[in-house]
Specification:
6 helices; five-stranded parallel β-sheet; 16% strand; alpha/beta
């Protein structure tokens, strides 16, 4: 069964999102587009990332990929949703290690700072990686989850 991937982007990642959807589909992934569905230069990244982040947190998709201009905005917004572990990724080591050690489930990319070839390499590394779940990594993950449970206190 194909891995379910959710993808979202604001205006600054709109074109890259469409390229990623095509490549992911060609590679055999089941892809859901969470928006933006039309190009709007005045859209706001928090509005775009929230549906994808909820889908990741609710396990409607196995992994998420979000693109904005720098990748920073979508990363900040996504991490406000309980159950999302998002990171801005610019290298293949972090794309892989973020999943293997930290159970990262949403990768954020900068559409204006990462070229198309590197972007695909980052996505490939992210999707091929699996959480290792060793005692050390699970202990750390549980501490991160506890931070969500106690935030605001």
């Amino acid at each position: 069964m194909a891995m379910k991937i959710g993808v979202a982007a604001d205006h600054a990642g709109f074109e890259q999102k469409h390229d990623l959807i095509n490549k992911l589909t060609e590679a055999g992934y089941a892809v859901h587009d969470y928006g933006a569905l039309v190009y709007d230069p005045a859209d706001d990244y928090p509005d775009i990332i929230v549906p994808l982040a909820h889908a990741v947190a609710n396990k409607e998709v196995e992994r998420g990929i979000a693109v904005c201009g720098s990748g920073v905005g979508v990363s900040i917004a996504a991490n406000k949703i309980r159950g999302v572990r998002a990171a801005l990724i610019t290298d293949t080591y972090s794309a892989r290690q973020g999943v293997e050690h930290d159970d990262m489930n949403l990768m954020c990319l900068g559409g204006r700072v990462v070229g198309p070839m590197l972007m695909w390499e980052l996505v490939h590394a992210f999707l091929q990686a699996r959480y290792e779940g060793s005692e050390r990594f699970e202990r750390r993950l549980q501490k991160v989850i506890a931070l969500e449970d106690h935030s605001g206190q």
